[in-house]
Structure formats: C-alpha cells, structure tokens
Known about the structure:
The protein is of the alpha/beta class. The chain has helices spanning 3-24, 27-43, 45-61, 66-72, 76-91, 130-141, 155-171, 189-194, 209-218, 241-253, 272-285, 308-311, 328-338, 351-360; strands spanning 99-104, 110-117, 120-125, 145-149, 179-181, 202-206, 231-235, 262-268, 289-292, 304-305, 319-325, 343-347, 365-368, 388-389, 397-398, 405-412.
Amino acid sequence: MSDLARRVAELAAAAKAAARPVALASAAVREAALRGAARAIREDEAAILAANAEDVAAARAKGLAEAMLDRLRLDPARLAAVAGACEEVAALPDPVGEAMESWTRPNGLRITRRRVPIGLVAIIFESRPNVTVDAAALCLKSGNACVLRGGSEAIRTNLALARAFGRGLAGAGLPAAAATLLPFTEREAVPALASLRGVVDIIVPRGGPGLIAAVTEAAKVPVIKHDAGICHVYVHAAADLDQALAITLNAKCQRPSACNAAETVLVDAAVAPAFLPRLAAALAERRTELRACPRALPLAPGSRPATEDDFRTEHLGLVLNAKVVDGLDEAVAHIAAFGSAHSDAILTRDEPAARAFLARVDSACVYWNASTRFTDGGEFGFGAEVGISTERLHARGPMGIRELTTWKFEVVGDGQVRA
C-alpha cells in the first residue's frame, strides 16, 4: 500500500468512526449542526471567495473551457445559495427512524420497516464546489458520515468550504470527521477510496465518463453512478410553439454546463418548417451553435451538419443538436438509442401523446411541457442533492435524504417461537 493509499484509508476510517455518533444524534442536534455550518460559510465568505478566485485563475491558466470555469466559479450570490441550501436541508422532515410500513402477522409478531442511515457515504465529484456542502449537508441530515473527494481544480475552494462545515459540526457537539474532505489531488486517491470494503458503505461518483469508469472499475463497494446527461426535448406536432421555443431555450441555454441541460431537440416533421427557423434565430442571438440532421439543416439557417457522434455527446456548452422525426415512435426510439436515461421532455397539448411519452421513455425523469433543467434536488424539494442517479437499484433521479438511507426490520413479539 502506498503512503497516499494509507492516508486515504486512515481518513476514511476516522470518518467511519464518526458515523455512529451521527446516526445516534437527535434530529435537533443534526439540524443545529447544519444551521451552524450555514453561519460559518457566511462568516468565511471572504476567505472562501479568495480561495475560489485562486482556483479559477489556475484553471483558466491551464486552459479549462468556459463551461468548466462556470461550474467552478463562486460569487457572493452563489455562495449565499450554498449556505441557504444547508438551512433548507436542516428544515426538511427528519428521515431517520421513519416507519415506512408496519404489519402484524397471524402469530402476533409486529413487524416495522424503519428507515436508518447507510453509514459512511463516499462521494467523488469534479469542478462544482457547491457539491462539497450539498453532499455533506444531505449526509448529515440523513444520519450518515461522508468522505468527499473533489476535483483538483477546486481544491482550495473545497478545503475552505469543508473547514467551515466542520465548524458547524463541532459547534453542535458532533465529530468534524463526519464530513471529511480528502486533501489530495492525485488520481490514486480515487481507487484507494473505492477499494475500502468494510469502511465505505456506498460510493457515489458524479462527473465525466473517465471518472465514472475509474470508480466503477476500482470499486469493491456498491456504486451509485451520477452518469452523463444526454437530455432531449421533443417538440410534438401538437406543441404550443411559443411555449416550446421558451422551454427549449431554457433547457439548453439557461445553464448549459449542467447535466440536466438539453443536448438534442427532436422536432416533429409536421411543425419543423414553422419551428426550426425560429429556434435557429433565437439560438444565434444566444451564441449557441445548432448542429442539424439532413432534414433539419435547410430549415435552420446558420446551422451546421450534425454527426452521429454529436447525438451521443454531452456537450456541456452552447451546442444543441436538432433532428426532425416522423412522430412519437421515432422520437422515443431516438431517445432509447442515444439518451443516457437522465431527463427527457415532450412538449405538446395532446394528452394521450404526452401520456404515451411519459410511459415509454425509460429515463430517471420524464417531463411534459416543462424544461429538463428542473431535474435538481432543490427544485424537487429535496433541499439539495448528492447526485442524479441514472441507475435502477436503490436510487434513481435526484438523490436526496431518503435516498441516503436504507432500512431495517424491527420485529416485536411476546414469546413467539418458530415451530
């Protein structure tokens, strides 16, 4: 074992030891810790923003794309939102100990399925420093400890945020190790953390394909992937085209670096001649490149030809693919072939068509007449999110506090023995 792997194991073991006190802490203590963390973040605003400015300058010097710089950058408003998310999570109903269901057997045994923390949650993420606080807050609220590994480009910011969060834990009498940020930028830290069977109970990677593959291949613990967001907007033949234009522009341009931003617009052939010229003009005003299929190309002035690879790419920037389709069946088939089971929308006034789309598109989040940008823990009322799972087991879609719990069965008897 290398020195780095040994140090990762030591920090994870300390976080694991902190998991039990957090799990047994009262809801009031965990809530106080979250409110204290929010106060500490506000008090440390100058230091956190200074650290972030250093990270952004270093990332720009390395040639990081503007979309990645946007994910990395904090300003007073974004930092205030980070602190506010702590308080929103604190105010959520406490999931720990919740009775999910209960029943009594004919022999008199009373069985209750009760929600309990998972234990030690490891979260590996890139670029976006708000994840440091969102993840720690959700883990704490759900009675878990966490060990976090952020991207090297945000190391100064993440350390400053983690220090503030730790003060909130300590102020409430909880061990600061319950929210441990690994201070290492070496890639070796990722497989070292993912291999800690018996220490780490579950690991959540959120980032690009390289990170997902590295964690999945190295993991000896269960993995819940926050995978690519190749999201679609389908403009149906019965769409309100004014509404469709507004939703499509929001889904693509409001924050193109987000995983829930649309990457492809599918346009029904019946409305393509009316819709695509308007969309192309509006995207040009927003400096967004449109890559069009052969049928869409002549209808979208200023667009360039799309390749098959374009339809498989999470652009994470001001690039949108366009494809003309002959109805709902082709739209659903395209999403099944090219999508990532993240978030997909249909825009239509035809309820049977919308219901068919919602039933047939097998994605974590499906929308009718709304932007895919709403796939977000905060927007769903979860306060924040650890990630957006595209898996099928345990958690799917935005992962909030309930997705960070498991359950146990409490069985109460009065002397029963099995025959």
